[in-house]
Amino acid sequence: MARALYIHWPFCLKKCPYCDFNSHVRAGVDVDLWRDALLADMRHEAQAAGGEALESVFFGGGTPSLMPPALVDALLAEAERLWGFAPDIEITLEANPSSVEASNFSQLADAGINRVSLGLQALDDEALQFLGRLHGVEEGLNALEVAQTAFSRVSFDLIYARPGQTTEQWRVELVRALGFGTGHLSLYQLTIEEGTRFATDVRQGAFTPLADDPAADLFTLTRELTAATGLPAYEVSNHARAGEESRHNLAYWRYRDYCGIGPGAHGRRGGLATVRHRKPENWLEGVAQQKHGIAQERALPLAEQASEALLMGLRLAEGIDLDALATRFALPPRGLIEEERLRLYEPLGLVWRRGARIGVTEAGMPLLDALLGELVPLELVG
Fold first, then answer.
1. Could you tell me which of 204, 185, 55 has the C-alpha nearest to residue 120?
2. pLDDT tens digits, one per residue of 129-159
């Protein structure tokens, strides 16, 4: 049964040039229509995967902070009616740090949001302009201050390894960020994703991405500074004080069941993978016709589930328990990992093993994608 619910709000005021998420710019949104459709999609998921109280709800996007607080309130009220809420439920909303959206923070808190994730993205106005953001540093920091007053838990995102960024520039920016006292930071290296405007810019020579070696130096510096400040990395790009890790994202990385509603949302429940229609209009049509927005629902073979659990779990500092995974998916423990590769990389300091639990070391994390390709058996990946 699902213990986590993801709600996707697909609309943005502007498409950022680095973003490959399912986000759309529309001249107007019929809020009543969207409320009814999201509630219908939610009810379908509760019928399929209800029975246990939710431990987390996450509003992602797009830009969920553009949602009217009354809509957020209605969705949370229905989720609580359908599933029930655990006493310490985490309810997160992603927000842009504009003054207009920050003015809704107190109402969003009244609606039940108790954790916000702010897309600051940079603490430099020139960098924000390059990243296509609509806010400046001053406006972003004002929104952060409002958020820290309104919500009990606050996280914010920064994008580093930007073109030409030096180690010293990132050190100054990150030290400043750590000084704001939030219990969680998401720190992402700039990645050029296919289908984005940045991918086109790079092909046309508009800018050159930071090379791998200096980007790796910035990654190492990031891990060192956050650990020294009491926000160690618990996942490749996520850093938190003990107890302030994102419970919702941990549900993904620990491969627990979750329901996803709204355009483009994915879900995993009862051995099934669900995918909603990506385009908002197609999703609305699907809900109107069949009372849910699912475009595809398929049963996942146990080997594929085990592969996904490995690929997600090895992102975490805590690693994975091979015996527990083998029991869960009725597979032999030795068939879950390439033992020869594990024995090769362990003395090199890239992976660790403690009994049945294995993981990637600090030295190995910059090479995570390559290590996953080596450690996870091809017959599992398919």
1. 185
2. 999 999 999 999 999 999 999 999 999 999 9
